[in-house]
């Protein structure tokens, strides 16, 4: 069998030939060192590429985006109209993220997000704190830490991700609380992202980690932009308000976002980890 | 049999759906396809179902996007914009067809648009940022990062259409027929481009391929 094309040799190397053709090509390859070398090149290249990318398809890497998709398209900077190329800035907002994501210490990553409220004994800024009075029922500064209170503490302790609840207060707009997802932090603690929304104060998101005695310590919280009413509307790329919080969570997160069964098990055990 | 006739017969067989995947891979793909086509009898699917299918596909999309952009932050941009496009144009996807093929097509079109607009040119490859996966085996992790950086450097030398095919077939593991569906090209075109792409990539990375890897690739001792 002479004159085998590169395409045929590649299909042979990839196992894309049927049995009859495969047998015929195999005989030809056995008799020709040149074919053998080419088949080896096709195989080695594919195997090397697959191996090199083996760790890239990790669900944890896309966990923050998955959470955004779950809670609505309006959280994603959407390119509409003539295409991404027409919007020079649209890909720019993430360029600042890798540097932050590469930082392995929480304080450094969190400090990089100027709009973040910082807890855990690092000092804090009120800019990220919901200013409306009922917020004090949700987060309070105690003994050097910002702690989730009342309904927020209950939500984090007991509700599965995706759960929303409303907290009504006299003479004030209700707060809507939502648990986004759970993850294990690099220091082994268990943490959850949450969101707080209030018609008067706006939208806030943060993450809290479970300390001793069932206390949820708020490590970072950021004020987000107003929620667009139309999912197709364009969110300015450079000003994506989620980005610093995403970076802080990425820097804090160990491995993947917890799955629903893992989270359910932890809630059932009062957040006591069997493996620890 | 002439070379041309052999190639034609081969192409027809491939178009008939021969698969290069192992049994487990085929099972996984079948399950993915089943998930993708699952939905109410009227052919439509709920918004939540659509989003969950997208989420299940994100890790694969992320790998493909890295093979195109060669850079971690641009990968994130591309994945995010692909998802935004998919959500925006959800009504253009036909339930019952492969969601992964549709989203890969969106991603490669977006990347080509951005590349033409010169947005993705000349960014250095950052070995630290290409993979931050936690790995207990430190040596394996370093070797993996180096291998990935080397492959990304090699991909940078390829023509865009060749790079896309490496991403679909070598990174994602698609068959030639599946890749031809994503690109809406004849299988024969996919094969000739892919063969050229792989030989060019081999030339670019051959210094990194150890003799062991070449032996593993070699069919005969």
Major sheet summary line of chain A:
7 strands, antiparallel
Count of separate DSSP helical elements of chain B: 11
CATH H-level superfamily title of chain B: PhyR, sigma-like (SL) domain
Instruction: Report the biggest beta sheet of chain B as strand number plus sense, adding barrel if it closes.
Output: none
Low-confidence stretches of chain B: 5-42, 122-137
Task: Decide which structural class fits the backbone of chain B.
Answer: mainly alpha
Strand content of chain A: 15-25%
The separation of the N and C termini of chain B measures 30 Å
Oligomer: heterodimer
Q: What would CATH call the class of chain B?
A: Mainly Alpha
Helix coverage percent of residues of chain A?
25-40%
Record field, number of beta strands of chain A: 9
* Coarse structural class of chain A: alpha+beta
Radius of gyration of chain A: 25 Å
What is the overall silhouette of chain A?
elongated
Compute the CA-based radius of gyration of chain B. Answer: 19 Å
Number of domains of chain B: 1
């Amino acid at each position: 069998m002479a004159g085998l094309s590169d395409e045929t040799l590649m299909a042979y190397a990839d196992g894309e030939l049927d049995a009859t053709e495969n047998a015929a090509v195999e005989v030809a390859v056995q008799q020709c060192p040149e074919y053998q070398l080419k088949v080896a090149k096709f195989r080695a290249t594919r195997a090397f590429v697959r191996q090199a990318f083996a760790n890239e398809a990790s669900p944890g890497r896309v966990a923050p985006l998955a959470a955004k998709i779950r809670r609505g398209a309006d959280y994603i900077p959407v390119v509409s109209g003539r295409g991404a190329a027409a919007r020079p800035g649209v890909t720019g907002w993430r360029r600042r993220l890798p540097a932050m994501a590469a930082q392995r210490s929480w304080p450094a990553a969190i400090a990089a997000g100027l709009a973040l409220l910082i807890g855990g004994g690092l000092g804090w800024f009120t800019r990220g704190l919901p200013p409306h009075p009922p917020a004090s029922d949700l987060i309070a500064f105690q003994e050097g830490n910002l702690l989730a209170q009342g309904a927020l503490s209950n939500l984090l302790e007991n509700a599965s991700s995706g759960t929303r609840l409303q907290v009504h207060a006299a003479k004030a707009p209700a707060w809507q609380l939502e648990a986004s997802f759970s993850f294990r932090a690099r220091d082994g603690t268990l943490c959850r992202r949450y969101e707080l929304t209030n018609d008067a104060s706006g939208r806030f998101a943060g993450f809290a980690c479970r300390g001793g005695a069932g206390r949820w310590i708020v490590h970072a919280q950021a004020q987000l932009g107003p929620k667009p009413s139309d999912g197709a509307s364009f969110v300015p790329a450079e000003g994506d308000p989620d980005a610093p919080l995403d970076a802080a969570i990425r820097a804090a997160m160990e491995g993947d976002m917890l799955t629903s069964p893992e989270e359910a098990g932890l809630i059932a055990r009062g957040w006591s980890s069997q493996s620890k | 049999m002439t070379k041309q006739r052999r190639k034609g017969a081969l192409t027809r067989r491939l178009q008939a759906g021969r698969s290069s995947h192992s049994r487990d891979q085929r099972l996984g793909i079948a399950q993915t396809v089943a998930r993708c086509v699952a939905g109410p009898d009227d052919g439509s699917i709920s918004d939540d179902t659509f989003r969950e299918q997208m989420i299940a596909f994100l890790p694969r999309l992320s790998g493909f996007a890295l093979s195109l952009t060669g850079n971690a932050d641009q990968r994130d941009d591309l994945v995010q914009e692909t998802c935004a496009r998919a959500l925006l144009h959800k009504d253009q996807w036909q339930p019952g067809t492969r969601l992964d093929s549709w989203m890969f097509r969106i991603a490669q079109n977006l990347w080509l648009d951005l590349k033409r607009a010169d947005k993705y040119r000349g960014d250095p490859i950052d070995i630290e940022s290409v993979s931050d996966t936690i790995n207990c085996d430190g040596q394996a992790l370093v070797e993996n990062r180096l291998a990935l950086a080397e492959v990304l450097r090699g991909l940078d030398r390829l023509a865009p259409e060749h790079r896309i095919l490496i991403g679909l077939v070598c990174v994602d593991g698609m068959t030639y027929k599946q890749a031809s569906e994503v690109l809406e090209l004849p299988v024969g075109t996919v094969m000739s481009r892919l063969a050229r792409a792989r030989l060019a990539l081999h030339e670019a990375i051959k210094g990194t391929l150890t003799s062991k890897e070449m032996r593993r690739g070699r069919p005969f001792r």
